[in-house]
Amino acid sequence: MDEQKLPFVVRKTENKGFGLFATKDLNAGDEILVEEPLVSCQFAWNKLYKYLACDYCMKSLETAESMSQRLTENRSLSLPHPECCERNVAITVQCPQCEITYCSTSCRDKAFTEYHQILCPHSQYCSPEGLEQLDETWRNIHYPPETATVWLLAKIMTRVKMEKNKAEFISYIEEFCHQCKNESEEIVHKLLGDQFKDQLHMLREQLKSLFYSDDIAHWFTVEGFEKLFALLGTNQQGIGSSALSVWVHNCDNLDLPDGQRDQLDTFIDKLYEDLEKVSGSFLNCEGAGLYRVQSKCNHSCAPNAEVSFLHNDHRLTVKAINDVAAGEEITISYLSECELNRSRHSRQKHLRENYLFTCWCKKCQAQNGDPDVTSDEDSEDDMDDT
Ligand SMILES: [Zn+2]
Ligand SMILES: [Zn+2]
Ligand SMILES: [Zn+2]
């Protein structure tokens, strides 16, 4: 997207930091922003469980058929309409030194200039044992369902070493950290649980021994590291990619005679049932990324825009879901669909604990008179906690 032609401006708000404001009338369905992350990364367990993704852009690299076979544990499963699978000729590119896989030479080259020159296990600058240890420490702290990854920090720290303009890159990262001490502590505790001080210390020591440089010495102090870690919790955006979803999407768009359409729909419904039985809801390559512009888009419990991943990789799209008038703030939801349907009290509690603000959107204002009740699902969560 041409920066000049973006249909919004980023500006400071009275009480919510930055926000995105429409500069022209937008219609439901309009594309507002397409953005590549500053850095992105697949989750550690997701990778370990062989959800094969491009190490640079997170594109799902299996064919839709091999993905379905793996996730249903049915090796003889075959998918109709192979032409709907965009990865049918599964071309992958490897690092010439190690096993790491990319979707294209362009991703391999970008990875090499940004971080892989240092993170490649065969590089003279790399300590493969150190990286393995870091991965293991992280996996032992953070079990699925995964919501964060220490690898984002590892990639950021490596980028600092590789960047020509280090000061600029560091300032981009520090734009994300704006919590104060107590708030950072709260977020990190939420991510790591009761042992957080010990675990955080361990991660800090391991990252320091791998990636320390004078330019970022302040990231390795107790307080600096807490802040850096908290930025993961409050700013990272989850990413999902799946060759199978692309296949389903393309199948939906096929122009078929009625009989064949019904047959295909029945096949897809049955496939999802089988997937659910064996793999539950873990169907996608999952990871997280940091997006400079999207991270400035504020939350509303009645949002007028949504985030999606339409390209089967880490490129994020923000689309209007309602008409937005020029001058109006563009908002997305930080809550899942199911969390959005909970009571005002439950929504606000979740947002306060995870994003450190009390929501005062139109919907929250309209429901201000509602009693402070916790939605049923939340009471169950609370009981689980005790
Ligand atoms: Zn790629
Ligand atoms: Zn390599
Ligand atoms: Zn709200």
Stretches where pLDDT is under 50 for at least 5 consecutive residues are 380-386
Shape: globular
Summed up, the helix count is 15
Bound molecules: zinc ion
Sheet with most strands: strand arrangement:
1-2-11
Oligomer: single chain
What is the first-to-last residue Cα distance?
49 Å
Relative strand content: 5-15%
Subcellular location: Cytoplasm
Enzyme class: transferase
Keywords: Cytoplasm, Metal-binding, Methyltransferase, S-adenosyl-L-methionine, Transferase, Zinc, Zinc-finger
GO biological process, one term: methylation
Task: Provide a descriptive summary of the structure in words.
- Strand 5 (93-94) and strand 6 form a beta hairpin.
- Helix 7 (181-192) packs across helix 9 (222-235).
- A three-stranded antiparallel β-sheet has the order 1-2-11, with no helix packed on it. A three-stranded antiparallel β-sheet has the order 3-10-9, with no helix packed on it.
- Among the domains are: 39-237, no CATH class; 344-386, no CATH class.
- The chain is globular and about 65 Å long.
- 44% of the residues lie in helices and 12% in strands.
- It has 15 helices and eleven strands.
- It is of the alpha+beta class.
- The N and C termini lie far apart (49 Å).
- One zinc ion binds at residues 54, 56-57, 59, 102-104, 107.
